Amino acid sequence: MVTLNSVLVVGPTGSVGLALCKRLIEHLPSFKRIAAFNNTERPAGPAKQAILDELHQSGMEIVSGTYNDVSAFRGFEVVMMPLGNSGNFLQPQIIDTAIKAGIRHFYPSEFGGDITVGDNWNQRYYRDKVLTREYLQKCNSELRQYGDGIGWSLVCIGRFTEWSITPYFGWNHINHTAEVYGNENVRQSLIALDELVYHQDLIFKIQTNVNDSVAAFTVLTLLDPFDVEDSRSCQRTYRFSQSSPTWKELFGIMEKVTGHPYRVTYRPVSEARELQRRAKEIGDEKLESAASHRLVQGTEGTLLPQPWDNSKFPEISKIRGVEEVLKEAFHSEKYKSFYGL
Ligand SMILES: NC(=O)c1ccc[n+]([C@@H]2O[C@H](COP(=O)([O-])OP(=O)(O)OC[C@H]3O[C@@H](n4cnc5c(N)ncnc54)[C@H](OP(=O)(O)O)[C@@H]3O)[C@@H](O)[C@H]2O)c1
Is this structure's pTM higher than 0.90? Predict the structure, then answer.
């Protein structure tokens, strides 16, 4: 039985990356080596440096270099790549470098809907996640010819609860209105990313008291022993979620959280489809991706299929409900600007 003992996190200062690093630190004694990758080609600044410093002081190694720097990737068993959507296209490059450095297991930047569900695989929004999965398959097939191979772990969650009520998705928390796609019965699966972590905060303090989140589950999967010979033969998918409320239920929850009812307009998904088509026609990739994201939302693309894997990790005995997480996030200073307040 094998577990993944030495871990490199690429994109450690992003929302998901930072949450993962904090949980790794919490489990420090269970790992041989945990490190955060500092990409020296990316913009730097005091906020990012403060996070890296704190990670370092809390027990993580900081590895500096570029995504082509084989020597920087040496000595790890697994690379986690929680890059943001605009950086996801870089994953094949990271995979190449990591393979050259001897790494044989990957956690690609998933943390969303199951992209094999419905029409997700063909959605522009998921394009770079699809390309990354295809690239992992291709590398594995090539390496197999030489008796080698790579493995991967996919973490699918639907949506982060904290992200489900953002202006980006049509919510206006000042006027208490919303414009969303689909109808009131459309569902989405939700689970908290972590405790209140928001990457625009300048001061980041390690708090290790909330264990019922995607970040906590994901770190436990590293310690989940393979039932195959080694990490290069292991390709597994984990699905974690708390519940799958409908739009109507989510608006009901937000009424309780804010004390205000929301006036909701449900837009037909055909509009999002048409917007996506037009955006593609004029070559506006950002708009195309945003329209595609709305289409995914309005057609239950983030409804996570059962069975979920929560119970495989009895260490996490209770997962906070949607109302509890949103109450906490909505009233926190940290999320104010995120929610347009
Ligand atoms: N299901 C949901 O509700 C939900 C919500 C949010 C995110 N997600 C998913 O979670 C994953 C991580 O998202 P996130 O919000 O944590 O990401 P993020 O905070 O936007 O970015 C994470 C890191 O990616 C790197 N990065 C971003 N853009 C880049 C670019 N153009 N070139 C190179 N590097 C870039 C940066 O690393 P450096 O620090 O090295 O510069 C950044 O810190 C994504 O796959 C996203 O789809 C899901």
Answer: yes
